Amino acid sequence: MSKAALVIMAAGMGSRYGGVKQIAGVGPKGEILMEYAIYDALRAGFDKVVFIVTAALKEGLEEKFGAALAKKGVETAYVIQDYSSLPSFHKVPEGRIKPYGTGHAVLCARSAVEEPFAVINADDYYGVDAFRAIFGQLQKLDEKNACMVGYKLKNTVSEHGTVTRGVCAVAEGALQSVTETFKIGVFPDGSIRDTAEDPAGRLLDPEAPVSMNFWGFHPSFFSALDSYLNGFLRGLAPDDLKSECLLPALVDERIKGGKLRVEVLHTDARWFGMTYAEDRELVRQEIQKLHDIGVYPPSLWE
User: Fold this and answer.
1) Domains along the sequence of the chain with CATH
2) Which residues of the chain have pLDDT under 70?
3) Phi/psi class of residue 106: alpha, beta or left (left: φ > 0; alpha: ψ in -120 to 50)?
4) Which of 18, 91, 92, 213 is most buried, by the most CB atoms less than 10 A from its CB?
């Protein structure tokens, strides 16, 4: 029997959103975005869900999903991303409240994952076909191979402000590099530009594939992630309050070092998500359309 775990990163602060967007209702019955991800993952073949959460979110998510997933025979685990899971040599600077990033988040799930696994954000909608594609690829992975679902940049920006995306270079179906780009915005003329270093913006290709943190890994990846996080922390200034250990940065390093090949999976599924509070209404409308055309039943869990 094929085995695969879905690891959901749900411990982010949502600073640009202005609240806990992981539990913001968007479905016709108040469903949250990660409910759709779980529903799609289960029908694709996933049989385990691991939630990476804050201590404050854990009880609410257990109450929301525990009984429904147990009824379906799905194994679940809840792991906390907080400073207590950092290595003992690192002293968290006074005044830091920001989490240590997606790399640290995924490493927190190590004790709960022994099988091939996919990683997603809690506040993104990835689409039915995307889960089917990555589930099939997970069954083929070994220590030297990984995969990701790529989306077109033009379909992942927000009209309400800048976004962060991993802009990818792809050749012959394999990821060549992924560059975390932090201030991507849509200009009045419709162009998409990176404004991190220049307000006028560096022009980006709207068709460029980007990572939305939908990755697939062999469980051996945790060892590399552990080493990478340790190196990242040792390199931080003692008073660094904001730097994050980012999953795409490790992937990029291992690709360039010849240690990892990442297959880029393409899907016709449309991504949408909530970076800003103003995005919520558009997401709600798109979700309703999917219910209306039968992609989802009136109730996900009945």
Assistant:
1) 5-292 (3.90.550.10)
2) 1-2, 12-22
3) alpha
4) 213
